[in-house]
Design a protein that fits this description.
The protein is about 25% helix and about 25% strand. It has 8 helices and 19 strands. The protein has helices at about 1-10, 45-65, 85-95, 105-110, 135-145, 185, 265-275, 325-335, and strands at about 15, 35, 70, 75-80, 100, 120-125, 130, 150-155, 155-160, 165, 170, 175-180, 195-205, 220-225, 230-235, 240-245, 285-295, 300-305, 310-315. Helix 1 (about 1-10) crosses helix 8 and helix 2 (about 45-65) packs across helix 8 (about 325-335). It comes from Candidatus Rhodobacter oscarellae. GO terms for molecular function: flavin adenine dinucleotide binding; sarcosine oxidase activity.
């Protein structure tokens, strides 16, 4: 998205990727991602998500590709742990985001797929939904090339001073934007690694029941279940129901580990399904993905110039909630790269601190 917006601003842009765009190691390579505005008390990300929603729909109309499905998002608020959800209601009211607040009985009536015995209430955001993530990446790259951008294969590393190198030689450009996801920590051990952690997330896709459309996106929303450390997406385009249980501090060697799910995650996900989605008990896992996420202490993104190399702009720090913001993030980062304006304080490398779940825009 940054490359596309730089191209549209009149820059001559070359996009260098270590592997084929959309490759299986990328955090954005999975079939789908949730897009929702819920960000606790953080109005900034709430507005960005709404802006990006409109931009995704525009890109969908422009390219003729099915990039987004508005099946809604259900946010389950567990009793005694509702600070993030409570704050979201207030933010939605300020920003003007359409939503409903459901009692447990209303959730059962509207979305019988969910067992909500311990839930205090739920927020339903009808204009949320899912993005077909892999298709979004490929479509954006093709649009970038159509508009004159160049895509090259290559491995960019850094030297002892963290200067970007390509094939053993310094990378030459007026501006170099580094947006390498979890690999940013490895590339910038002094600048990015101290303010980041890399976590692996196991994702399972479970078959829907024979002859039933109850778990399809036409009948079921995406959901976020912080009380259970989980989130999920209904079956879309035949994928099966996606469920992820986030196991804190799951380490990953991003260069050497196989992208295979762990037995611990399989067991936890099945346990979660028994608890929250009883209609899927006994259904078989039909697919899986293993993604890596780079987390900053405050879960804010990174868009800032390298402290020693004035033409190197670092962009990322996805913290598990960047993909949906892609169009707004890419446009903003392109403007910073062209020095049309400075970056936001929240995106700067310095001054990072751990936020409580109540403060965090991601609820973590």
């Amino acid at each position: 998205m940054t490359a596309l917006h730089l191209q549209r601003r009149g820059a001559k842009v070359t996009l260098i990727d270590r592997w084929e765009p959309g490759h299986a190691r990328a955090a954005s390579t999975d079939y789908n991602r949730v897009i929702r505005a819920i960000s606790g008390r953080d109005e900034f990300y709430t507005r960005w998500a709404r802006d990006s929603r409109a931009r995704w729909l525009e890109l969908q109309a422009e390219t003729g590709q099915n990039l987004m499905y508005e099946c809604g998002a259900l946010i389950l608020a567990t009793g005694g742990h509702c600070d993030w959800e409570d704050a979201t209601s207030e933010t939605f009211d300020k920003v003007g985001v359409p939503y409903y607040r459901f009692t447990p009985d209303e959730v059962r009536a509207r979305f019988p797929q969910f067992k909500v015995d311990e839930i205090s209430y739920a927020l339903f955001e009808p204009q949320a939904g899912l993005l077909m993530a892999h298709r979004c990446v490929i479509t954006t790259v093709e649009l970038f090339k159509r508009e004159g951008g160049v895509v090259k294969r290559g491995t960019v590393t850094t030297d002892a001073s963290e200067r970007p190198m390509l094939d053993g030689r310094p990378l030459e450009a007026d501006v170099i934007v580094i947006s390498t996801g979890a690999w940013m920590a490895e590339m910038f051990p002094r600048t990015i690694k101290p303010i980041s952690a890399i976590m692996g997330i196991n994702v399972l896709y479970t078959s829907t029941p024979d002859g039933s459309d109850q778990f399809d996106m036409e009948r079921m929303p995406c959901w976020i279940d912080h009380g259970q450390g989980s989130f999920g997406i209904p079956s879309s385009e035949g994928s099966g129901v996606k469920a992820a249980v986030v196991i804190p501090n799951t380490p990953i060697d991003i260069n050497n580990d196989e992208r295979l799910i762990e037995r611990q995650s399989l067991n936890k996900t099945r346990q979660y399904i028994r608890h929250r989605l009883p209609g899927l008990i006994g259904e078989r896992v039909v697919d899986s993905k293993f993604n890596q996420v780079i987390l900053t202490p405050d879960t804010h993104f990174i868009v800032d110039w390298h402290p020693e190399h004035s033409n190197v702009l670092l962009a990322g720090g996805c913290s598990g909630h960047l993909f949906k913001h892609g169009p707004a993030f890419g446009d903003f980062t392109a403007g910073v790269a062209m020095r049309d304006y400075g970056t936001a304080d929240r995106f700067k490398i310095a001054g990072r601190r751990k936020l409580s779940p109540k403060e965090s825009p991601s609820g973590r």
